[in-house]
Every structure is written in C-alpha cells, then in structure tokens.
Amino acid sequence: MTSRSPLPDIQTLDQQLCFALYSASLAMTKVYKPLLDQLGLTYPQYLVLLALWEQDGQTVSGLGERLYLDSGTLTPLLKRMESAGWIERQRDAADERRVLIHLTAEGRRLKTRARQVPECLLQAARCDPQEVQALTNQVQALRNRLLNRP
C-alpha cells in the first residue's frame, strides 16, 4: 500500500502565487535600488527610460499603457524626470491633446551608464540569461491571462 502526501493547505501564505510574486518583486527592487541610486534614478524612472530607449517619442498615454501606469502616477513621474533633464515633454503638432515624450542627450547617455544593471541582476539572482528569460516569459504570460480574463 502506498501512502500519498496530503495536499498542501492552499490557504497558507506560502501557497499563494500572489505572495510569491509580491515578495519576489520586493526582493527584486532591493537588488535594483543601490544600482539605480548610483545613476540617480528610482525604479519607476528606470522603467520609463527602458521604454524610451526602446522607442523614443512615445505619447504619455502610450507610455502609460506600456508600463501599466495610470496618468495620475505617470504625469508627476515624467515632470520630475523632465526637471532632472532626462526627458522633454512636447505637445504633438498634429494633435495638441497628445503629449510626446522624448529623451534628452542626458537621457540617452544614461543608457550607457545603466548597461551594468541587468548583469548585476543576473549575478544577484544566480541565474543564467536563459533561465531569467524563461521566468520572464512565464510571468508575462500569467499577467496577460489575468488582464484578458473573461
């Protein structure tokens, strides 16, 4: 006769996917903080720069969609980044309602200075790039399923 292990109690903290993601996110930002402090950036500012380094000249609304941030969070963040000299906000000449976000020369220079950030994360996580990519793909797939649920 084989004995089977009882099923885990799904109402414990360690069995909650949401808690695993939340606590992993907190641990991740702790790794990023000293790296970004050296660059004078906060984590949300770093995310904005990553999006703009991929595609400069995005609209505020497009940037908000890309980063999953509402305008109430994004607008003050962009104002601080503009004051720091990393971005410029300009009204779209074709549609005055739209605001375009462009990197300044200093914002573009930060990309070079930030090159070590992903490598430091790999070292801290003790993962190879393929493992990080697989985890990223899984979390993105989960996010997309949750956002597109019926």
UniProtKB/TrEMBL annotation:
Domain of life assignment: Bacteria
User: By what name is this protein known?
Assistant: MarR family winged helix-turn-helix transcriptional regulator
Question: Matching PROSITE patterns, A to Z?
Answer: HTH_MARR_2
What the entry lists under InterPro entries is as follows: HTH_MarR-typ, MarR/SlyA-like, Transc_reg_Sar_Rot_HTH, WH-like_DNA-bd_sf, WH_DNA-bd_sf
PANTHER family per the record?
ORGANIC HYDROPEROXIDE RESISTANCE TRANSCRIPTIONAL REGULATOR, TRANSCRIPTIONAL REGULATOR, MARR FAMILY
Report whether Transcription regulation shows up as a keyword of the record: yes
Q: Which organism is it from?
A: Hydrogenophaga bisanensis
The record ties this protein, via Gene3D superfamilies, to: Winged helix-like DNA-binding domain superfamily/Winged helix DNA-binding domain
Keywords from the named record: Cytoplasm, DNA-binding, Transcription, Transcription regulation
Residues forming the HTH marR-type domain are 14-144
Which compartment or compartments is the protein found in? Cytoplasm
Q: Which residues form a coiled coil?
A: none
